[in-house]
Amino acid sequence: MADFLIGLGLPGWLAWSIAALVAAVLLLNVIAGGALVFIWAERKIAARIQDRLGPTRTGGRFGWLQSLADGIKLLAKEDLMPEGADGLLFRLAPYVSFCASFCAFIALPFAFDVVGQRLNVGVFFVVAVLGLEVFGVILAGYASASKWSLFGAMREAAQVVSYEVPLGMCVVVPVMLAGTMDLVTIAEKQSGWMSNWYLFHDPFTFVIFWVYVTCAVASVNRAPFDLAEAESELVAGFHTEYSGLRWSFFFMAEYGSMFLVSALAAVLFLGGWNGPVPIAQLVGLSEGTGDSAGYFVRLLGLANLIGKATFGVLLMMWVRWTLPRLRIDQVMTTCLKYCTPIAAVMFAGAMFWQLFLPGGLLPGWSRPAGEIREGWLEGPGGLSATSAPAAVRSAGVAAAESSDSSGLAKRSPR
Amino acid sequence: MSNLIDDDPRIIEFDVRTDEMLVNMGPQHPSTHGVLRLVLRTDGEIVSETEPHIGYLHRCAEKIGENVTPRQWIPYTDRLDYLAAMNMNLGWALTVEKLMRHGVGEKARHLRVLIAELNRIASHLVGMGAYGLDLGTFSPFLYAFREREKILDLFEEACGARLTYSYLTVGGATADLPPGWLQKCEAFLDQFEPIIKEYHALLTTNAIFVKRTAGVGVLSREMAIDYGCSGPVLRGSGVDQDMRRDGESLYTGMYDGYTFEVAVQKDGRYPRDHTYPSVPKEAVLGDCWHRFFVRMLEVVQSMDLVRQSIDRYAACREPLGEPLKLAEKLPVGDAYLETEAPKGQMGFYIVGNGTPIPWRVRARSSSFSNLSVTHELCRGCLIADVPAIVGSLDIVMGEIDR
Q1: Could you tell me which residues come within 8 angstroms of residue B357 by beta carbon, excluding any fewer than 6 positions away?
Q2: How many folded domains does chain A comprise?
Q3: Bridging pattern class, strands B46-53 and B37-43
Q4: Which residues does chain B have within 8 Å of residue A324's beta carbon, measured at their own beta carbons?
Q5: Measured between alpha carbons, how far is A273 from B99 in angstroms, rounded to an integer?
Q6: β pairing state of B172-173 and B37-43
Q7: Using an 8 Å Cβ cutoff, are A107 and A126 in contact?
Q8: Is residue A49 located within the same domain as residue A141?
């Protein structure tokens, strides 16, 4: 886009600023719009799980405008602050939470090259920035001058910081398999059939995916790990004293984070924007071309990724409306005694698998990472050569991008 | 070692002494079942002391009882344990009947069993669902209320009210059941029976539920007796006592001919153990899990009793009979009777002085005694355990404050 604007005769700095602004607005709308949809979905899903109807009237049918109506109600609410609260921090906290959740989206690829900013440390960036969300919660708890809020903040601090450890270990496994931290490349290396997904790469990645799911649910404070806002114990936890729009920022941050960790799971383990069946490639379309076919493929990829991420979010909702809440000591036990050791063992297992069995147990079926782009089209029963060059070209791009760190995957013993 | 700390300027000695914090849980708190106020003394997440403060719902019900006739006080008994209003009506009606030495006919007897046991199911459903809510799961609460609604529908058809029935009254009931009611009741029982499995799946056997309740808040047998606990709280501690079997003959006579087994663990197993989930290994007799499980068993037990009473009630051909007049003169003397309400032993005391208005009215509520063990059970537990323990006692503030 910046190139296009420069082509129109604009100075470089202005073109880049406009492009960045457009991208930021687009991303913000993804989160805000996504949160609206997910809040509505949560209400409907919770209702269906509980034999209720949920919102039915707002917006004509299915209550699809309910979240918007709620938003307007929240806007109109009185903005309260407790008397003893630390004014600055109290006001700052929701934005810290929301910004952390929002910033992580910058590096999240929605489809091939549909990414706010392609970072060669994308995984690291997303996990690190997402971890910042906890600051908002701690600030809120500290600044609210409420004992319940303080309890919630303390729990959040203990829980989220602990779960960063196994979460990081789970995230490292796909990084190791792909040989890069670039989220685009990681997803790109899982293209092709479903069997190329890192989820099915080896037994260790399969197990570690579920560890990731557990840790992701815990790190975004969803049930059964929603201790920071445990309503039956801490009234509402860290946001007890919040009302109106400030409260809704916490809410949006929560839904943004839910979507983000689900999308991250999709990129790292579930093939990113690559569908279970490479339809686009089978019919001869490729994203490397940049023409309308490329746009179509990206659109398809976008739908794929959003679909997978949405599935993850729905899974979290399902869990939330089914399970009771764990106690804080049990949450910590789950992390320190189960998730961390399992993640460590699976990490080591995946490492040795990658070293000794890079071709998988069934060579030709599960292909070694890094050789997929080059090889899968030419396999037995493979497709015409027309789409192959494009595929190889984009693989070349990917390889060039990650040439510095993708040694392990490339250096297969065969 | 101390030299090292003193010498090295980089090492700053922190004052790591932590302060205890007083926290008010309630009276406006989502999980204190109404207006209970618990003052917690906490050290971080650990609760060192819990003190229940009551009285936020005091309505001078007993004093009002000394200014109206016994039948006029029936609506006030509705508001004691408002989740089991029928059982409250029954307890009071039986006490007044004891004072007046007035018996009721066979049909009224079976009707009372039917209605009281049905209300017991409704009360335990609320207790069960709200307990799930205390532990952070919302759906079982609504599943429980879905079935409770059907019981309330039945009650509404019988007496016109859904919560405060004033149906069972001194000398019988205010009206006979409408035609077709028994069939509806049977249809409900048939529909309800398989649903209990859902509750067991979502709560009783759920791994997280077991983790949160098993071994938590263990109330020993001795302590339960010392504090005068009753009902499922007492039976959850393994004390084999049920007023329906062990009470006064005036009350147990109501259950003459009925077969039921008191839901209590004997020799390590519950009656009809095989049809229910087995007791998890972590569970200790007297903990939250056992109290909850006893309630679940009593739901099934009450269903069985309702079925028995339907048959017996239908077999009665004579009319139900009229209740006593609104202002009947009470004899001089007093009477005290304890009945088995869903929450435990509900005792009423009445002193008559020859006028239609009693000279003294008192009530002894089970929730009050049950609540009094809170400070023992919550000592040294985590904050999250406080709702778990208080919820397992299944208290109703209307009954405690009266």
Answers
A1: B66, B67, B68, B69, B330
A2: 2
A3: antiparallel
A4: 132, 135-137, 203, 206, 208-209, 212
A5: 80
A6: unpaired
A7: yes
A8: no
Q: Are residues A387 and A402 in the same domain?
A: yes
Higher pLDDT, A9 or A271: A271
Distance of CA B211 to the CA centre of its chain: 24
Element holding B232 (H helix, E strand): helix B232-236
| B201 interface with A at CB cutoff 8 Å | no
Q: How far apart are CA A218 and CA A261, in angstroms?
A: 11
Where among A76, A102, A117 does a domain terminate?
A: A76
CB–CB of B353/B359 below 8 Å? yes
Number of folded domains in chain B? 1
What's the pTM? 0.81
Mean pLDDT of all residues belonging to chain A: 77
Range of the domain at B215: 37-401
- Domain-embedded: residue A217: yes
DSSP percent split of chain B into helix, strand, coil, nearest 5: 50, 10, 40
Question: Please, are residues B352 and B333 in contact by the beta-carbon 8 Å criterion?
Answer: yes
Q: What is the pLDDT of residues A80-119, one digit of tens each?
A: 888 888 888 888 888 888 888 888 888 888 877 777 777 8
Q: Which of A8-17, A177-186, B171-180 has the lowest mean pLDDT?
A: A8-17
Pair B62, B79: CB distance under 8 Å: no
Q: Between A51, A148, A155, which is nearest B142 by CB?
A: A51
DSSP-H helix ranges across A288-387: 292-320, 328-333, 340-356, 372-375
Closest Cβ–Cβ partner in A46, A51, A151 for B143:
A51
**Residue B158: what residue type?**
A
Q: Name the one residue in this structure whose structure tokens are 């066979």.
A: B106
Q: Which segments of chain B have a pLDDT < 70? A: 1-18, 32, 272-275
List pLDDT tens digits, range A139-176. 888 888 888 888 888 888 888 888 888 988 888 888 88
**Max alpha carbon distance in chain B (Å)?**
98
pLDDT (tens digit per residue) in B10-49: 655 555 566 788 888 878 777 767 788 888 888 878 888 8
Contact with chain A for residue B208, Cβ under 8 A: yes
Q: Where are the beta strands (DSSP E) in B258-359?
A: 333-341, 344-352
Closest to B206 in 3D by CA, of B134, B137, B265, B269: B137
Are B363 and B391 contacting, i.e. CB atoms less than 8 angstroms apart? no
